[in-house]
Each structure stands twice: as C-alpha cells, then as structure tokens.
Amino acid sequence: MRTWQSFRTLRRMDHDLLAKYDGHVPRYTSYPPATRFHQGISAASYRRWLEETPKDAALSLYLHIPYCENLCWFCGCHTKMVQRYEPIAAYLELLGREIDLIARILGEQRRVSHVHWGGGTPTILLADDILALSDRLRRRFEFVPGADFAVEIDPRRLTVDRVAALAAAGVTRASLGVQDVSPAVQREINRRQSLAVTARAAAWLRDAGIDAINVDLMYGLPRQTVARILATCDAVLTLQPQRIAIFGYAHVPWLKRHQRMIDESTLPGPVDRFAQFAAASRRLGDAGYVAVGLDHFARPDDTLAVAARNGRLRRNFQGYTTDETSVLLGFGASAIGVLPQGYVQNAVPVHAYRAAINADTLAVARGVALNAEDRLRREVIEQLMCNFTVDLSETCRRHGREADHFAPELVRLARLEADGLVAVEGNRIRVSDDGRTLVRTLCAVFDDYIDAGEKRHAHAI
C-alpha cells in the first residue's frame, strides 16, 4: 500500500508521455467491463444463477435510487430530475416488490454483510420511507452483526429527520458529495454547495452516531486549477473525514447528454489533470492520509486502509471496498449485480424496470457470463488496480494455467517499462509511482475485450 511519502516522487509528466498513454480505457470496476454486457443474459439467466447461489454465502446488497432534485452536469450516473415526490413513492413500491421477489427465489433468509444505497440521491427519500425500505431489507435478509451499511448523500438535501432515520436504519457510513468548493467551478457544473452546508451535514451525522464519514471530490472539472483543488482539500480536511476519494471527471457527452452543458474549452487538459491529482495527493499525504488504490485516501486506522495494507482490498461498481463477498445483488433501475457465474444489470429506464416488476419477473436487461479466461484476467486486473503488483505465475497456477500464459502481454508491457511506468521481473509486475495514475492503461494490456480504436470510455487520467 502506498504511504504518503511516495507521492513526493510523482513528477509532472511531459506532454509526449501523457499523449502516448492517456487513451480511452475502462475504469475496471468490473471485468469484463460493463460496455461488454449484452442482452443474451436475461431474467431467466439471473433466476438460474440465484437458485445456484450457495446457501451459506454472505451477500452484499446494492440499492439504486435514480432521482435527484437537480441535475449536476458532471454526473455520469443513471439518474433523472424530479420536482414531485409521487414518482419516488411509486418507485419505492416497485423496489420493495423486487426485494421480495429475489428473496423468494433465494428460498430462505440469507446473511448480508454489506449494504450500499446509491443514486441519484438516496437521501431524497422521506424519513419514513428510509425506515420502511431498511425494514423491508431486514425482514427479507439477515444482517450479520457489524454489517457495513453505506449511503451516498447530497449534503444540500439532508435534513435532521432524515439523519435520524438513517441512524435508526443502522447506517454505519455516509459518503458526502462535494466535488470542489470553488464557486467558479460549482457554477460550471451546476452544483452550488457551501462548505458550511457540508460541515452541517457531517455534524448532524456524527451527532446521530454515524461516525464514518467519506468525502467525494473530483479533479479535471471545468475551470479547476491546482490552486482550487488544493483549497478544496484544505476545506474538507477541516471536516476530518475517515476517507476522501478524488475521482477524475469523465467527460463523455456522447453517453451523458447533460454533460454537453459543460463548455469543453474550460476543461483542463491531461497535463493539468495530472498536476491537479498529484498536488491533491501530496496535500492529503501531508495531512496523514494513506493512499488506497488509484483514487482513495484514508486514515491509517480506517478499515479501507487496513484492507489495503493486508492485501485484502477489493474493487466493485462502488469503487474500492472491503467487501469480499462473491455475491452482490443489485436492486432498482440500472442496478448491477455480481454472482460467481457473471454480471447482471437491470433495465436502465424506469419505465422498463416498472414493466418487468409489474409482470412479476426479474428486471434484468443485459449482462455477461464469465468463462475461465475472464476469471483469470479479472483477478490480474483487480490485483493491479488494488495492489499495484501481481505475480502472474502464482495467479495462473491458481487458475490452472501455465506460467507463460501471459507471454504476449509481457511483450506488450515492454514499452511501458521503457518509459518507467512499470517494472517487470520475470512474471512479477510492479507499477511504479509514476505509473500508478496510468494503471488503467496498464490493465488494458490484459483486457481481452479492449478495442484500441473505440471511444466508449473516459481518458486514463
């Protein structure tokens, strides 16, 4: 695991090197990436996979709330803006029925160790509905003692009664969206949010007993500069969060039409993006946070930092996690689930999700089944993303493959090694400090599905 000292070696990459490697690559929150999901995986496939789930397997649950009161122009999530509560109430009724349906298919109450509510804005729910939804989950599943229960929060929409409901529901961790504290940047992304509002939310949560506070930031936003991101880091450090995530803004207006509201001429280029991330990394390191994976920072005693230190860090669609379960069930429109057999994703449009639930069928619209090669490459990519090192021989042995299985990939790594981004010692790969920001480019070498000419993904930096 990186300590803060390693960030002092991050150099300002030259234009040529960034141009060479800052291609369009997946974020590798899954492998195969979600862009490879297809309609050949159906509700019938998902039902069969659920029925085959080992009864003693602990589960992780993800619930998606696809609504916001206003739309942030940087957002890459599946969400829509609503001005009335009626669509939300109707959606919750569907969500409850999906929970019941999947619980029936599983056949008996299963153990749950991790829960995550995302969106959208989960805290757009009224206090009574937060409690009702949590109660429904607890009736259908057995939450193990100490289960991690995380909720994404928009501080601008948080109220005291909602905080009380979250605490009563058993929430243990809250992620506060901030992005950047500069009014100039906030105007460009349609998200005006004072530090006082964010601090108030953190205080309310801690007063209610929810002590694990995460803060989400972004670099590469319009009109963002090194000075502004450092000011943002300094501001959120006063909140003393357990974790800070700094995600690179993914400008994909061909996928997210509302991002066309952003003036592309105000976006920093790859050199400036790299400088922003490097500066923020050093500032957080100076404050005592340790780097976890590509873009997370945590206090040394936080469970995420401990998992990274012990080689137990994992990665899923919520980013870096301590969740080691092999079964993640997704509920709600667009939600993605992971099972040993493969990935499934519910219909993205709410109306399509509604039609499936009203027909008393699973709402899966697409997915992908994993084969042996997928599982091998997934482990290699996850180790690189989480640990920045992998022993290919040992990984191949666990998967019943010869040690030289990745000989072609090792040849392709030669140019990255020549540029100082990676060190290759036999079949062991170690990402250098300079190469960590470009680790997704390194992972793409092991991606059987990557198409060098496609632009479906965001830039590597």
Characteristic terms for this protein:
461 residues; alpha/beta; Arc Repressor Mutant, subunit A; pyruvate-formate lyase- activating enzyme; 2 domains; three-stranded antiparallel sheet
Descriptive overview:
With 461 residues, the chain is of the alpha/beta class. It folds into 2 domains: 1-28 and 371-451, Arc Repressor Mutant, subunit A; 31-331, pyruvate-formate lyase- activating enzyme (Alpha-Beta Horseshoe), CATH 3.80.30. It contains 16 helices and 19 strands. It has helices spanning 15-21, 43-51, 86-106, 127-140, 160-169, 183-189, 195-207, 226-237, 270-286, 303-309, 350-358, 372-387, 392-398, 407-412, 414-418, 439-444; strands spanning 59-65, 67-68, 80-81, 110-119, 141-153, 173-179, 212-219, 243-248, 290-292, 296-298, 314-316, 319-321, 327-331, 336-339, 342-346, 364-369, 389-391, 422-425, 428-431. The strands form 5 sheets. Strands 9-10-8-7-6-5-4-1-13 form a 9-stranded mixed β-sheet, sandwiched between helices. α3 runs parallel beside α4, α3 (86-106) crosses α11 (350-358) and α8 (226-237) packs parallel to α9. The longest helix is centred in the first third of the chain and has 21 residues, at 86-106. The radius of gyration is 21 Å and the shape is globular. The two termini are 20 Å apart.
